[in-house]
Write a structure and sequence with these properties.
It is a single chain. This protein has helices spanning 33-53, 60-67, 71-78, 81-102, 113-130, and strands spanning 2-4, 12-14. With 132 residues, the chain is mainly α. The chain has one domain (33-130): Tetracycline Repressor, domain 2, CATH 1.10.357.
Length: 132
């Protein structure tokens, strides 16, 4: 249970719920396992190249080589560099959100609000400093 406190409403105990699994849209297909592995490998390689060499160093050829996939796979998956960088940012934000929603304290539930806010600030600074 999580205690919900609000200055305008009485406090109450709210049940902690597991993550909600949303259904796919009609006609949408689940991602194949090999496609998911390729996506993860491409994003990991892009993140590594970005950290080590900067955005200018990321070409689709170099990225494909680093990820161990074909250049066509990179283009088919992301289309262009802008979409790749958007996916990298999205993945970083997902990890931050996951840590805040379900991670360990102090960022995750269980720590006092002030400690969580400070931990969130530190995590956000770390995220933005990684991206320059």
């Amino acid at each position: 249970m999580v205690r919900i406190l609000s200055p305008t409403a009485p406090s109450y105990d709210a049940p902690v719920r597991p993550p909600l699994e949303l259904p796919l849209l009609p006609g949408a297909r689940a991602e194949r396992a090999d496609a998911a592995r390729n996506r993860a490998a491409i994003l990991e390689a892009a993140d590594r190249l970005l950290r080590d060499h900067g955005a200018e160093a990321i070409t689709m050829d170099r990225l494909a080589c680093q990820a161990g996939v074909g250049k066509g796979t990179v283009f088919r998956r992301f289309g262009d560099r802008a979409s790749l960088f958007h996916a990298l940012l999205d993945e970083s934000e997902r990890r931050l959100q996951e840590g805040f929603i379900r991670g360990p304290a102090p960022l995750g539930p269980g720590a006092p609000p002030a400690e969580r806010l400070i931990a969130f600030g530190h995590a956000l600074i770390e995220l933005t400093s990684e991206r320059g």
